[in-house]
Amino acid sequence: MTQRSDSPKIALITGGSRGIGKSIVQHIAERGSDVIFTYVQNQTEAEALVKEVQATGRRAAHLQLDVGNISQFANFAEQLKGVLKAWEVEQFDYLINNAGTPGSGLIAEISEVDFDQTINVHVKGPLFLTQTLLPLIADGGRIINISTALTRVTYPGQGVYALAKSGLEVMTRYLAAELGKRQITANVVAPGGIATDFGGGIMLSQEMQDFAASITALCRVGQPDDIGGVVASLLAPEMGWISGQRIEASGGQNL
In angstroms, how far is the first alpha carbon of the chain from the final one? Predict the structure, then answer.
């Protein structure tokens, strides 16, 4: 059982059942790759997305995972191996660390519990999940970590979230340097404001969408497909010379 050069590529997306993650799953599948994605609680949403992808002729599977709980990772890797074995391969090609939580709160007020949760989900989790899965990522593969425009611009109440995402961005550069010998690239995609239910759906309100449009060169709030398309494009063969980079997809926010 080997990874044939002519086999469809396989992508693993964390937090792939909704919002930006769902769009990433859809765009990657549309471009011809098979997809495995994780969800935390809503199995019904996950199953619906699997069926949607399978209807296009691509293979799809979902696995439950809380990226903030590192104790789950060894068992998750075994479950992933089971999916790959069923697909008659031993490795996958693309890892997209997308799962996240808002982690908002003023620095003067945030609790240690909330701080730890934000760091676990956005830094510690992606680091140790990537470490756990490295033997399963094929040489020549790609790693994409999802960050935020908030590592470049400042809004009170987003400091700890931005701090965590800044750590993720630094980690990405080191992954690029350390995995280059295996021809594995690592890059960051940093969205601006996106109209999803993330953070309680704050960006779905008309007030916030109007504000986002007022500070964005393209004069509108972002949509999940704006990010899903960017991530999928970075997996294309002609993007193989890009590594260690932060690509902001914000429509020109706060230029």
Answer: 50
